[in-house]
Amino acid sequence: MPGPSRLRTAALAALTVLAPALLCPAPLCAAQPKKGQNAPALELKDLNGRSFSLKEELKKGPVFVSFWATWCQPCREEFPLVSRLAREWQPKGVRFISVAIQDREDAVRRFVRDQKPSQRVAVDQNRKAYNAWDLDAVPASFLVGRDGRIAAFYDLFEAKDLPAIAADIRRALGAYGR
Hints:
The chain is α/β, with parallel strands linked by helices. It has helices spanning 4-23, 54-57, 73-89, 105-115, 128-133, 162-174, and strands at 43-45, 51-53, 63-68, 95-100, 120-123, 140-144, 150-154.
C-alpha cells in the first residue's frame, strides 16, 4: 500500500493535469487571437456611456486592450499597472481600454471608484467581446497596431515587465509617425 507522501504526490500530479480543465471552462479556454493575427472587432460602451470602437480608435493611435474581472485576483493586481501605462502613454496617442468580462457592472463600478484608473473601462454585458476574442483566461492584454493586427500579447504582467511593454508601445507608435 502506498504511503501518504506517494498518495500526495499522485494527487498533486492528477490535480496538475485536471486543474486547467476544472478551473477554466471550455468557452473561456478557446483559442484567443495570436500575435500577427487580425484583432477581432470590439465595440462597447464605457462606464461613462461613451461608445468605443476598436476600428475607430485605431485611426487615432495604437490600442491597448486589457481583459480582466473584479473576481480575478491577478487581474486586480494588474489593473493599476495598466492604469500606470495609460497615464504615461495616452498623452502620446495610445488608446487604453480595460474590458471587464463575466462581471457585474456594480462590482466593476465599485472597483473603479476605488482605483481611479486612467484608462477607459467597459463591462462586456452581453459577452460579445468575450466571444469574439475567444480568451484563454484573464488577465489578458493585447496591443493592437495601426494595421489592426495584434502587435503584442501579455498575460499576467508585473511591474518588471513594464519596460518591455513600453518598447512594444514605442514600436506601435512608430507606425503612426510618432
